[in-house]
Design goal:
single chain; 5-stranded mixed sheet; 6-stranded mixed sheet; 356 residues
Length: 356
């Protein structure tokens, strides 16, 4: 190894548009085992204007997306520099940035995460490791999920890891020790959408969903969506939510409470189906881990599994932590994307390195 210890910042933005997550972390590797110490973590919420721009970007022209990419990179520079100054953070080895996904169509051979321009390194005056998905798609992979190698290297005490963000994804070791992972179902991209219609950013603790009842017709239609019958590796994008899921739900003309209750049931059913049959414990992170009603329904369907919801810091910043690790692995020229997870032609060390 080049170094046994790195101090870096992981930075990412998820499809649920909660904000920009920053994770200042020390990563140490001794005897081929990685350990992480979280130093400073923070989420910077998007302004109403930025949230709306990012939400609508998938429908924009190529020219407008290019302009958005430049402006979003400038936003990340400002957010990062402010984070460094306010927390009195000194020298770091790298900024490891995921950016924000605008398009994700691996079936058509492309994916786009904005905010990964060389100007990020110039504006922050840091070495930047970024754009982790593009190479995998070029190698025939889904470009997602990327977190499983972090699950394997940092959270091996758990038999499976579940992330509940804009979408749910899970990873675990197969019988031969190969890491398996895939996207499962839309989560906060749909739940937050309907909470937004009532002027709420999200359904706090699932209180709205709890008030509703399941609409069996809608539940059956959702459970029959083609995606669930596909074999892994597979991944989801906002395109499916906009083109398939939201129109299907809206067609039913139901109250928000009934929609949320029904979709939570749908999420729980789809996740419960793919948890390994023998699974002692499952680590749950991401914003959806705060949805008490969803956690109850998941435990209802899989009472045999110890479903572990960790500290708020781990819930909120696990993905940013993993992207910090992906950046360090890239700097070490070690594998940071697994073909068994994405379906790429080979394991590889993905991402671009920009120097100021």
């Amino acid at each position: 190894m080049i170094k046994n210890s790195y101090t870096v910042i992981g930075m990412m933005s998820g499809t649920s548009l909660d904000g920009i997550d920053l994770c200042h972390v020390r990563l140490d590797c001794q005897h081929n085992k990685w350990k992480a110490e979280l130093l400073h973590c923070e989420t910077i919420p998007y302004s109403v204007v930025w949230e709306e721009r990012l939400r609508k970007a998938v429908f924009s022209s190529e020219q407008l997306v290019d302009e958005l990419n430049v402006e979003y990179t400038a936003l990340l520079v400002a957010v990062f520099n402010d984070f460094m100054n306010r927390n009195h953070i000194g020298e770091i080895d790298a900024l490891c940035s995921h950016g924000h996904t605008i398009f994700h169509r691996p079936d058509l051979g492309y994916t786009l995460q904005i905010g990964n321009l060389p100007q990020l390194a110039i504006g922050t005056q840091q070495r930047v490791v970024c754009d982790f998905r593009v190479q995998d798609v070029a190698l025939g992979g889904q470009g997602a999920p990327l977190v499983p190698i972090g699950d394997q290297l940092l959270f091996s005490d758990y038999e499976a890891c579940l992330n509940l963000g804009g979408f749910a994804n899970m990873s675990y070791n197969g019988p031969d020790g190969t890491r398996l992972a895939f996207d499962i179902v839309a989560v906060n991209t749909v739940l937050n959408h309907y909470a937004n219609t009532l002027g709420m950013a999200f359904d706090d603790r699932g209180q709205l969903a709890r008030r509703g009842v399941v609409d069996r017709n809608l539940l059956n239609e959702l459970n029959q969506l083609e995606f669930y019958g596909l074999s892994a590796p597979k991944s989801l994008g906002i395109e499916m939510v906009n083109a398939v899921i939201l129109p299907l739900i809206n067609k039913a003309s139901l109250s928000v409470e009934v929609v949320l209750n029904t979709f939570v049931e749908h999420i729980a059913i789809q996740i419960a189906k793919v948890i390994p049959l023998v699974c002692a414990n499952l680590l749950v992170t991401g914003g959806g881990a705060y949805h008490d009603y969803l956690m109850e329904r998941l435990r209802f369907y899989r009472p045999d599994v110890d479903i572990v919801v960790p500290s708020a810091q781990q819930i909120n910043y696990k993905e940013a932590l993993v992207f910090a690790l992906l950046g360090v692995l890239k700097l070490e020229n070690q594998i940071n994307v697994l073909a068994s997870v994405t379906g790429a032609s080979r394991n590889h060390s993905s991402g671009y390195v920009f120097n100021p």
